[in-house]
Automatic annotation (TrEMBL):
Source domain of life: Eukaryota
Organismal lineage: Eukaryota, Metazoa, Ecdysozoa, Arthropoda, Hexapoda
Residue span(s) of domain Galectin: 50-183, 218-326
PROSITE patterns, per the entry: GALECTIN
InterPro entries: ConA-like_dom_sf, Galectin-like, Galectin_CRD
Residue ranges crossing the lipid bilayer per the database entry: none
UniProt-recorded name of the protein: Galectin
Keyword vocabulary terms for this entry: Lectin
GO molecular function, one term: carbohydrate binding
CDD domains: GLECT
Keyword Ribosomal protein in record: no
Length: 326
C-alpha cells in the first residue's frame, strides 16, 4: 500500500525565558554611596501534578502517554524527564513546556542548573486549550524523542543526554493527570489504518475526484498502489510568504521507522543562496539519493497551482500547471 503525505516546513517562533523564571529588579547602594540596579532571576515552582520514577529504562520504542485535564486558569505547564546529577541537583533531558497564553510549545533541556537552547518550531500549531482534556505522547526513536499532542504529531526533539540518564517523569502546572501509561510501540505513530483516509481514483470515463481544502499535514492511502498509467493531481495555493512545502509518495504513514520515499517533491522559496529551488529526490532506508533540480521554478507566492504526478513504465514524470517540470 502506498501513502501520500503533504506538509509545509515549520517556521521558528520567538523565544522567551523558560518556564518558572521571572526577573526581579532591586536598587542597592554601594560602598561609595552610588545606587546600582541588580537583576536577579527567581524560581517560582509550579504545583507538581505527577512525579514518579520510570518503571523501566528508556529504549527505542519506549512510549509514554500522559492524559489529563487543563485547568481554566492554567497559563503553562511542563512535562519533564529528569535525571539526578553528581552535584545533587536535577538535570532535565526533556522539558516539554506548553505556553497556553502564547499558543506555542517550548522544548528544552537543563544541565547543572543551566538551560540549553530552546526549540519552538513545529509542523503544526498547538491544539492544547484551557478547560479541556489533553493527551501527550512521548516516543523514543533512534536519535530523538517524537512527540504528539492530542493524536497529532507535533515535533521531534534530538537527544541531548544519554537515554539511560532519564530516571523520572515529572509533570508541573495547573493540570489534573488522569493517567500515565508506559508502553512499547513498534512504529510511530501507532498503526491505526482507520485514521488515514483513502484516496479514490477516477476512471478514464469519469470526472476527476475533487475534495475540499485539506488541513496540513495531510496523509492519504492509495489502496491499490500507484500503477502504470495513473495520474495523481494535487491542487492548492501558495502562501504569500512561503518557506517551503513537500509532497511524498511513500510506503507507509509512519514517521518511525522511516518509510521508503519513492518520490519527494520539495519547492523551496528564497533559500540561503537567495534562489527558489524545486528539488526532487527519493529515500531508501536511512539514505537520501542524489537531488535533482530544475532551472524552472513554476511556483509563485499567493498563486494557485496544480501538480500532476504521472506513472510511466519505468519512471515518474512531474507536471506543474500543464508544464513538464521533471
Amino acid at each position: 500500500m502506498s501513502t501520500l503525505t503533504i506538509d509545509q516546513d515549520p517556521h521558528d517562533k520567538p523565544c522567551c525565558n523558560c518556564f518558572g523564571k521571572r526577573a526581579r529588579y532591586k536598587s542597592e547602594k554601594s560602598l561609595n554611596g552610588h545606587s546600582a540596579i541588580v537583576c536577579e532571576k527567581l524560581e517560582f515552582p509550579m504545583p507538581v501534578a505527577y512525579a514518579e520514577d520510570l518503571p523501566n529504562a528508556l529504549a527505542k520504542g519506549s512510549t509514554i502517554v500522559v492524559s489529563g485535564f487543563i485547568h481554566p486558569d492554567c497559563s503553562r505547564f511542563a512535562i519533564n524527564l529528569t535525571s539526578p546529577n553528581k552535584s545533587g541537583d536535577v538535570d532535565i533531558p526533556l522539558h516539554f513546556n506548553p505556553r497556553l497564553d502564547r499558543h506555542y510549545i517550548v522544548r528544552n533541556s537543563r544541565k547543572r542548573g543551566r538551560w540549553d537552547e530552546e526549540e519552538t518550531a513545529s509542523a503544526v500549531k498547538s491544539n492544547l486549550e484551557r478547560n479541556k482534556n489533553f493527551e501527550v505522547v512521548v516516543f523514543v526513536a533512534t536519535e530523538e524523542f517524537l512527540i504528539s499532542v492530542n493524536g497529532v504529531h507535533f515535533c521531534g526533539f534530538s537527544f541531548r543526554f544519554p537515554l539511560n540518564t532519564c530516571k523520572r517523569l515529572e509533570i508541573e502546572g495547573l493540570v489534573d493527570v488522569s493517567r500515565v501509561s508506559f508502553k512499547n510501540w513498534s512504529s510511530y505513530p501507532e498503526d491505526n489504518p482507520e485514521r488515514i483516509p483513502r484516496i479514490e481514483f477516477a476512471k478514464q470515463d469519469e470526472e476527476a475526484v475533487t475534495s475540499q481544502i485539506l488541513a496540513l499535514p495531510y496523509t492519504g492511502n492509495l489502496p491499490e498502489g500507484f500503477e502504470e498509467g495513473w495520474q495523481l493531481e494535487i491542487s492548492g495555493r501558495i502562501k504569500l510568504l512561503p518557506h517551503s512545502f513537500y509532497i511524498n509518495l511513500q510506503d507507509g504513514a509512519q514517521l518511525w521507522p522511516h518509510p521508503i520515499i519513492f518520490l519527494h517533491l520539495n519547492p523551496r522559496f528564497n533559500t540561503s543562496a537567495g534562489e527558489n529551488v524545486f528539488i526532487r529526490n527519493a529515500r531508501y532506508g536511512d539514505q537520501w539519493g542524489p537531488e535533482e533540480r530544475t532551472r524552472m521554478f513554476p511556483f509563485t507566492p499567493g498563486s494557485p497551482f496544480t501538480i500532476a504526478i504521472r506513472r510511466g513504465f519505468d519512471r515518474l514524470s512531474i507536471w506543474v500547471d500543464g508544464q513538464l517540470s521533471g
